[in-house]
Write a structure and sequence with these properties.
single chain; 206 residues; alpha/beta; 5 helices; 41% helix; binds S-adenosylmethionine
Length: 206
């Protein structure tokens, strides 16, 4: 799926996205978001900010910039930030081609984004580029199962899931983060599942 199709798809579902995701949020995703974001400080970039589900979890004083490729998802994030009186710069931008100068941000945040980005390694290289030397990239992402059989099943089902719902269910996002030149600081399985990961990454230390 190329960028224009991803944009179209999220534009199409923007109106119902929060409702669609609400069972998962109630189960545990909201809690994971809160934990992930509790430590961020300074200049923060959230890529693929979507409808702005993370906005309420940023600590006070965070200087937040959010980008998304879908105008309609972003419009919802803008409305949410206005109604919550949260100051954030929200921009229409592709994570694969960001216009920010090198080393601009203390933290880059991504939640459930790199399953949809057409060229994830290109996007992750951009994440690395815009991160300060001592910056961190924080991810919550679902990934391909490490279990041999389940991984193969995900590979087989992926084309159907991608055309019906949109995201790829068999992305090796932890490997992709490494392949983009970032160093993994920690990886945790979330909710007792090896498919849901919390990853913290930084620039490789010399
Ligand atoms: C599954 S949603 C997740 C939204 C939000 N991060 C969340 O946690 O609810 C994926 C988001 O990534 C955005 N996205 C996908 N590809 C992108 C790209 N290349 N550049 C920027 N945003 C992108 C989509 O438009 C969508 O809003």
């Amino acid at each position: 799926m190329d960028s224009s199709k991803v944009k179209e798809r999220f534009d199409r579902i923007a109106w119902i996205y929060d409702f669609m995701e609400s069972p998962m949020e109630m189960l545990s995703v909201s809690k994971w978001r809160k934990e992930l974001l509790s430590t961020v400080r300074g200049k923060v970039l959230e890529v693929g900010i979507g409808t702005g589900k993370n906005l309420i979890y940023y600590p006070e004083g965070t200087m937040l910039t959010g980008i998304d490729i879908s105008p309609r998802m972003l419009e919802r994030a803008k409305r949410k930030s206005a109604s919550l009186e949260i100051t954030a710069e929200l921009l229409l931008m592709d994570v694969e081609q960001m216009t920010f100068p090198d080393r601009s941000f203390d933290y880059v945040v991504s939640t459930f984004v790199f399953c949809s980005v057409p060229d994830p390694i290109k996007g992750l290289k951009e994440v690395k580029r815009v991160m300060k030397n001592d910056g961190n990239a924080l991810f919550l992402e679902h990934v391909r199962s490490e279990n041999h059989l389940l991984g193969k099943i995900m590979d087989v089902l992926n084309p159907a899931v991608r055309s019906l719902i949109g995201p790829n269910i068999n992305r090796r996002t932890v490997d992709n983060i490494r392949m983009a030149g970032l160093e993994i600081i920690s990886t945790e399985n979330m909710g007792g599942s090896k498919i849901m990961k919390r990853v913290i990454a930084g620039r490789p230390r010399a």
